[in-house]
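Your task:
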Amino acid sequence: MPMMSKTAGTIAAALIVVSATAFAQGRAAANQKPPAPAPVPDTSEFVIGAEDMLTVLFFRDKELSGDVTVRSDGMITLPLVGDVRAEGRTPTQLSDDIKNLAARFLTEPAVNVFVRQVNSRKVYITGEVKMPGMYPLTSPRTVIQLIAMAGGVLEFAKKNDITVLRKDGTASRAFRFNYENVARGQSLEQNLELRPGDTIVVP
């Protein structure tokens, strides 16, 4: 009997230790902060375009708040105020426009507009790069930076015969880009700052 009591006591002590450890781990997990969200670029002076997704917030009025996508005609539709032109406006300007329209129905409305997702500013890269396709142009970016984003040129690419195609109004222009020269710090004028709609062709 003494031997059994000693064994039971040992098991009980072990169970207490395991329970305490599990409890401590549970508390530690509960106290852990969730991972911080990815940083969003400052788009306060960003010029809104078609397909951009916006968040419109009315202070203390959730029914009027929500996410909207700019239509191809440049307009958004909001409860109460109806259609509002968003294309060509900054978030600050659009906030003021919505506030002025809402003032017909609300007393001193407070409105904020945020860019949730940029879809209007796009550039393209095709040909002999690792990841060809469309890339959002959310900040200033040069030709060589976009090539790097696309994973770099492939082994048999014609690095010295790259072309940047750009629509200039109704006309199209083509710019030569010598990758090896620019990479060596030469002919840097070829390393254009990209504009929405530009296409880089890597043969």
